[in-house]
Design a protein that fits this description.
This protein has a seven-stranded mixed β-sheet. With 199 residues, it is an alpha/beta fold. The radius of gyration is 17 Å and the shape is globular. Helix 2 runs antiparallel to helix 3 and helix 4 packs across helix 6. The longest helix has 12 residues.
């Protein structure tokens, strides 16, 4: 069986130069003014997260709960109508099939996935009550989901891996058989995995 060559990409601050969840919240606060009333809840949840009073999963549930009070599909479409132009050109001109793996929510990324024609999208899944299904898609969970949803079903060969986070995306960088790229201010900085992490 012929190998399926893939590149893996993080999304936030990698394919786009911003954190999409936070930017979406601000976009909605501007277009649906009642969302502004929810901002104190987000700030309180952020404080509780820093103080280890709540888990990251609980924080993300509280952070995105405002979505229940807006026309979500319309808002997501409007958001990407405005910000799709900020997608990095080097991603648009990619040569190989791509797997985008992100901790951002499915309801926010599925629209841009269709527009940019991601070959595969793996992200944090939410139910209708804006609670995370399974685990938040970050750290080792990214690798687990990749193996479960793609590698175990195909004869895959990961070539290059792209991410802005050297700290949190070490697990997906370890999958690269080609180059690792750290994305800094839209620029691609190649590095050697063993030299960087000492493994």
């Amino acid at each position: 069986m012929e190998k399926l060559e893939l590149d893996i990409y993080d999304f936030d601050k990698t394919i786009v130069p911003f954190e999409s969840g936070s930017k979406f919240l601000l976009y909605c606060a501007c277009h649906y003014p009642w969302v502004i009333l929810y901002l104190p809840v987000v700030l309180a949840a952020g404080l509780f997260l820093v103080l280890n009073i709540i888990s990251l999963k609980t924080f993300k549930h509280l952070f995105f709960y405002f979505v229940k009070f807006i026309p979500c599909q319309k808002a997501v479409k409007g958001f990407w109508d405005k910000y799709e132009c900020e997608v990095n050109n080097w991603f648009v001109s990619r040569k190989r099939k791509c797997v985008v793996i992100s901790a951002s929510p499915d309801f926010l990324l599925e629209e841009i996935s269709k527009r940019l024609k991601f070959d595969y999208l793996i992200c944090t899944r939410y139910d209708k009550n804006i609670k995370i299904i399974g685990e938040n898609c970050r750290d080792e969970e990214k690798v687990r989901r990749f193996k479960e949803e793609i590698e175990n079903k195909n004869n895959t060969f990961v070539v290059d891996v792209y991410s802005d986070s050297l700290k949190y995306d070490k697990p997906i960088f370890s999958l690269a058989n080609g180059k690792c790229y750290n994305v800094v201010d839209k620029e691609l900085i190649p590095f050697d995995y063993i030299e960087k992490y000492g493994e």
